[in-house]
Structure formats: structure tokens, C-alpha cells
Amino acid sequence: MALSKVWVHAELTPEGNLAPISLEILAKAREIADTVEVFTGSDGSAVAATAGAHGATKVLATGDLSGKLQGVHVAAALAAAIEAGDAPDLILAGTTYDGRDIAGRLSVKLDKPVLTNNVDIDVTDGIVVTTPIFGGTQLVKTKFAAGAPAIALFRPKSFVAEESGGGAAEVTTIAVPDTGAAGAAKMIDRHVEETTGPKLDEAAVVVAGGRGLGEASKFELIEDLAKSLKGAPGASRAIVDAGWVPYSYQVGQTGKVVKPTVYIAAGISGATQHMVGMKGSKNIIAINKDPEAPIFGVADLGIVGDVHKVLPKLLEALQAR
Amino acid sequence: MNVVVCVKQIPDPADPGALNADHTLKRDGKLILDESDSYGVEMALQLVDKAGDGEVTLVSMAPNGEVSGLRTALAMGAAKAILVSDDALKGAGALDTAKVLAAAIGRVEGADLILAATESSDGYTGTVPEQIAAILDLPSITFAKSVEIADGTVKVQRQTEAGYDECESPLPALVSVTAGVVEPRYPSFKGIMAAKSKPVDTVTVADLGIDSALVGWAGAGQEIVAVDAAPEREAGEVIEDDGEAHLKIVEFLDGLKVL
Q: Which residues in chain A are contacts of B93 at CB distance < 8 A?
């Protein structure tokens, strides 16, 4: 049974384009619903063409929200539109910073549950989402039982983005009602960290380091190896929390989900927290001193050895080619 | 400056997790303070210290009157705690949890700031802080990597995909903090002793004026239909480094044509 209408959050990149996660969700939305519309906390004109090409017929746009926070304002606009009779069966977004804020605020406004961190959805018998638990070792299927609209958030890379060949979506304004005291927080300035090389969640090769590196300065080995493989460096939560590298490097449940062609885990034991973010890689190479490290359980090639010995030699061999 | 910190007491993440027959998480062993929450507790203690007056109050929801994790946070320096413990909360989802915690926060007089972790280490829905703010009709800034208070305003660096946003909000407000926002202190022996006599107000759902028929399994608005093992990834070859293991890696990469 296909749903009649779903809304998908059109999340924007810093450059103002539709984010990959929104395109991924749009591909699934098209499969489960007759009508797909996107909503955005922006003026919407910049995403109309891409959203249309990925199957959306309408862009529900709040208008420019610069200086305001997305969560409270977008949720207020959606709740008002729903109250005015335009309710979808289902509202979808990514498990992202703004996605969670919008869904959290909206769930209270509508008094409906929100289910996050999902990796799949099925609408054959009600709306059922699949969520990994215990580090992805088990999958829970949960059915929404509170009536429309259901609110579900998905982890990045749960679906594969695909164009449908549709024309530009029609932009419609949804008014943001007065949010009162709750809307008083402001965004003053935006800092975009400079990055070079491919993005962590888009790179074909990811080289990630963990505690086994011993000290922050040794992360250079990871960066050098990533560079020589034209890949991106990544990190376990342990060394991000320890302040060795910025949060943007983190792979795992609370960081980025990556699915590269090759994932090299160096000095990472494989806490479930970490494995959730990289288990979907096509090939995994692990280097760790401890032969009992859980990471070897998912590795296609496991090297029991010292990263301080293996990595420099590997680097040298690659550079000699 | 009075700060309320939402804290969760969870099964030790080092132990393998398990579910009860009704699909709720097994929580019958000793529960510990979620490490993610120790950052909020530390942040709160530092903000109160800096302000020179006020105190830190903890709010928590846990079965069986569990206080082990609360005692850890009290030993760090929090003044008191409110614990909501009620069988009716079994099966509670994120929205129920937010309703209960918001009602508990309502019992704290003169709260200027509410802190929470961005998500718990066991449920990790990541929506409860924003839901609490919505229920209390407060402004909120989530995913903070730094928090400062000046002239009745909270200034936050909010984590984003590409870097961070500088945000600010008038007080009272809710802020959720990421791990690494501050370095949590270890409780001192003196702190641990003092924590034993600090007040923990244990209340039920009815005490908070919430209808128990609307929370927990009864009010979750969701139904677990199956729990299955995820398809396992098979382990491949594991070799001991004999000084030449790097060549094996080169060969492997060559085979994948990524070189």
C-alpha cells in the first residue's frame, strides 16, 4: 500500500545545494508514496530544480531564515500547514543536526512520536521503520501507531540517491507563525572549516586512526597515508574526545557513516560505537596490536601488528610505485 | 545561576546489551551515569562556579529507584537530584521521556539554564533535549561544542556538518552539549562521601501530574513488531606482521584497483 503523500526535509549544504542525505531519502520517498513534497527553511528557489529532478513536485519554503535557528521555526511552519489541513502521511528527514531539531520540536507540536536513526522503511502493513541497535548487531522493526503524520529520521547512506527525471518543483511559501520566547535564540555567524581532499563521507578510500596511534602527533601517519591513496582521514571517537583531531573526522554512531571502497582502520579496536559507522564499507583492512580486537571480526584483511611499524613501511611502498 | 542537568543512568556500555521479552532494554543490573552526561554535569558546575552563586540540580528517569549514576554526578559536585521512577514508564519513547523530564524540571525553582547531552549512549535518539525545550516553550541551542554565559545570554558554538555556528540565546534556555565541550572531573573522595547525604527527591508520574495511561507502552504511539539479528559481515584473512605485512596490504589494494 503506497502512502498518498510524504514530506521530505530539503537540507542544504553550506553552498546552498540540496544535501546528499535529502537526495537519498527522496529516492525512497518516491518508492513509497504517490506524492512527494520537500520542505525547507530557506526561500526554496535554489533547490526547486534538484528536488524536482529527484521526484518532488512541490517545495514548501519558509522563506529566508538567516539569523534564526532552523528547528523551532521550520517545525512551527510545518505544524501550521498541517493544522490548516495539508497533512502528509509521513514526514522524513536525515538524522542530522537540523533534522533532529525540526523533528523534536514538531513531535511536541503534533504530540506524535519521532523515530530516529532508521536505515529502512516499509509501508506494506502500516509504516514500519528499521533501526539498528547494539552497534548494529540487531535490527528493530517499529510500527507507528499514533496516526498521521508519522515522523521518521534516517541515517546517512541508508538509500541510494537517483534522479527521476522530473521537472522543477513548484515553490510554495509556508508561513512561519510567531514562535514567541521559544524562537529567541539567534545564529550570529557561520564558520566553515577549510578542508582539502575528498570529503570523509564521499571518499573512495578512508584511512582512520584510533588510540593505538599512541599520541596526537602520530595522526600525521593517517593523514599521509590518506593523501597517498587520494582518500580522506577519519578517526575513532576516543581520539576525537581526547582532542587529537576535530569532531568532523569522527566515524561512528555519533559521527559520520562511511561506505568507501576501502576502509583502513589503524590502531582502532572496533568499539560498537565505531563499527556502526564503517561496517558498510565494501572492503575493510585492520591493523591492530591486539589479536582479540573486535575490528578483526569485520575485516577482509587483518594485520596483527604495530601501526608504528606497518604504516611507515606501507607509505614508503606506496610512494615508491 | 541555577543550572538543571538532565542525566541518564544506563547499563554499562562495556557489557553486551540485551533485551527483555517485551523488547525493552535490560536494566536490571547496576546502572551507571552515561558518560555523555558527565560533560553536561561538568559544564554546569563550571558555569555555577563562575557565576559565584546558585547550584546544579540533576533530573533523571530510571526504573527501580536507581540512584547509582546520580550519586556519581552528585559526587562531582551537583547539589541535589530529582528522580522519576515509575513502572508506568516502561516502554517510554523519546517524547514520553521529554514530557516526564520537562515536568520534573518544572519542579526546580529559578532554573536559568537546562543542559543535556546531545544523545544518550544506549537509546541515542538525539531528540529529547529539543523536545524538552518545546514542551517548556524555551529557546534552545543543540550540539554545543562551547558554552559561555554573559549578561543573561548564553553564547554557544553549535556543531554543524561543515564547522560550527556561533549562536546565542537569552536565558532561560536549553543547551545540549557534545562530548569534549569540557573535561569532566573525577569525583574526589570527599565528594563521594558528601554525595551520600545529598537530597534525591524520588517522584512518580502521578506526582508530576502526568496521566500514567498516556506514557510508557500505553502512550508511546509505536509498536515494536520484530527484533532480528543483523546480517553478519564475515571476517577475512588475519595475519601476524612478520615485517612484510605492508606488502600484503599493497597487494590487496592492487586487487581492488584503488592504486
A: 113, 115
Q: Is the separation of the CB atoms in B224 and A140 below 8 Å?
A: yes
CATH number of the domain that residue B40 is part of = 3.40.50.620
Contact B124 A14 (CB under 8 A): no
- pLDDT number for residue A1: 66
8 Å CB contact of B167 and A317: no
Given a cut of 80, is residue A291 above it in pLDDT?
Answer: yes
Asked if residue A177 belongs to a domain, the reply is: yes
The domain containing residue A210 runs over which residues?
A: 205-319
Spell out the SS3 assignment of B145-202.
Answer: EEEEEECCEEEEEEECCCEEEEEEEECCEEEEECCCCCCCCCCCHHHHHHHCCCCEEE
Q: Say if the Cβ atoms of B95 and A112 lie within 8 Å.
A: yes
Classify residue B69: in a domain, yes or no.
yes
Which residues face B157 on adjacent strands? B146, B166
**In angstroms, rounded to a whole number, what is the distance separating the alpha carbons of residues B20 and A119?**
23
Taking CA–CA distances from B141, the nearest residue in chain A reads A185
Cis peptide before B13 (omega within 30 of 0): no
Is there a domain that residue B7 lies in? yes
Question: CA angle B134-B139-B144, nearest 5°?
Answer: 105
Q: Is residue A199 part of a domain?
A: no
Contacts of A101 in chain B (CB under 8 A): 130, 140, 142
Residue in chain A closest to B159 (alpha carbons) equals: A97
- Does residue A189 lie in a domain region? no
Position B232 scores a pLDDT of 80
Tell me, what CATH number does A282's domain have? 3.40.50.1220
Q: Are residues A155 and A100 in the same domain?
A: yes
Same-domain pairing of A171 and A278: no
Q: How far is B10 from chain A (nearest CA, A)?
A: 13
What single-letter amino acid sits at A73?
A: H
Residues of A in contact with B162 (CB under 8 A): 13-14, 192-193, 248
Residue A195: predicted pLDDT: 72
Q: Tell me whether residue B156 is in a domain.
A: yes
Say if residue A161 is in the same domain as residue A221.
no
Q: CA nearest A207: which of A217, A196, A220?
A: A220
User: pLDDT tens-digit profile of A182-205?
Assistant: 999 999 999 988 777 888 988 999
Cβ distance of A184 and B227 shorter than 8 Å: no
Q: Assess whether pLDDT exceeds 90 at residue A104.
A: yes
Ranking A24-33, A179-188, A284-293, B6-15 by mean pLDDT, the lowest is: B6-15
Q: Which of A254, A284, A306 to mutate to test the interface with B (most CBs of B within 10 A)?
A: A254
Residues 6+ apart with CB under 8 A from B108: B2, B4, B57, B59, B82
Q: The C-alpha cell of B128 is what?
A: 529529547
Total structural domains within chain A: 2
Q: Are both A173 and A240 inside the same structural domain?
A: no
Question: Residue A286 forms beta bridges with which residues?
Answer: A265, A302
Looking at the structure, tell me whether residues A151 and A262 fall in a common domain. Answer: no
Residue B234 covered by a domain: no
Domain count, chain B: 1
